[in-house]
Amino acid sequence: MNLPLLGADDIETLGPTGAVDALAAALSGGLDPENSPARHHVTAPGGELLLMPATTRQVTGVKIVGVAPGNPAHGLPRITGSYLLLDGPTLQPLALLDGAALTTLRTPAVSALAIRHLTGPVLRHLVLFGTGPQAYGHLAAVLAERRVERLTVIGRTPHRAVALVEQARRLGVDARPGETHRAEEVATADLVLCCTTSATPLFDGALVPDGATVVAVGSHTPDAREVDSAVVSRSAVYVESRAAALSEAGDLLIPMAEGAFRAEDIAGNLADLAAGRDAGAEPTALGRPRFFKSVGMGWEDLAVAAAVYRNAVP
User: Fold this and answer.
1) What is the span of the domain harbouring residue 53?
2) Distance between CA atoms of residues 142 and 160, nearest Å
3) Are both 87 and 134 inside the same structural domain?
């Protein structure tokens, strides 16, 4: 069997809009995120191994991801992995994809799908926390969906923040670096993106303006969070699926343990947003912020991997 190997170039060719459209099509086709198989965690010497299966009538797949926190110190990527895509009815392998590149495209696409329904067409001020691959991916995905008038990049490493600012300027955005100890930049933001490995809140949630949207993607464990309880308790909260968020999202589970949030306070999942089932998500509903939390789910990888395959293999 000559199994096609689809690398980063094949995956990037699909582009942010193609990935967002693939997710939207999966949801409009009846996929229920609440029924997606759970992620499996395996402790490994270098960190953690994640197994993420998913299936539809047409295709099945599994992503095998390594999360190695010590890798960057050795010049290696923190995220590694592969994705095996199979035909749904026969379970015959169709292709093997670069798992890290797939994640770099898929995660921003999930955020961008939420942003389609949570923000207006023009973002006056975008504040982006993070300077790694997900920060670059989210910048590209947001620019594919919205016009950004001003960008502030906040990262722990100044030269990496400057590099991302320069990339944004090449894309035509008025961008500048912020300072980690001056996270009050969020007070003038209408979109805040959190794309970091931080296990503790990045800013004071009381500063987020009513009507702004906050998106957090950096953590998927119950003991880590990028936003504080103020963000969660003040906001209309949306998730990929309630089941996944209430199992893995420390951004929600920690406020729940504090009594600042309840599971029933979740306003909707990604399918609700995509179907327009929650009027509170409309950008005109400016009474409070909106918060979208993603932890990453197998159905998202499957939808994007299948779209990459259709795009790349005749």
Assistant:
1) 5-103+299-312
2) 20
3) no
Chain segment 125-179, per-residue pLDDT in tens: 999 999 999 999 999 999 999 999 999 999 999 999 999 999 999 999 999 999 8
Q: Judge if 172 and 256 occupy the same domain.
A: yes
pTM given for the model: 0.93
- Looking at the fold, whether 244 and 180 belong to one and the same domain comes out as yes
Residues 73 and 119 in one domain: no
CB 148, CB 126: distance < 8 Å = yes
DSSP structure class, residue 33: G
Contact (Cβ atoms closer than 8 angstroms) between residue 30 and residue 45: no
CA dihedral 248, 272, 150, 124 (to 10 degrees): -140
CA separation for the pair 71, 73 (Å, rounded): 5
> What are the tens digits of pLDDT across the range 161-174?
999 999 999 999 99
Residues near 244 by beta carbon (within 8 Å), at least 6 away in sequence: 33, 36, 38, 39, 295, 297
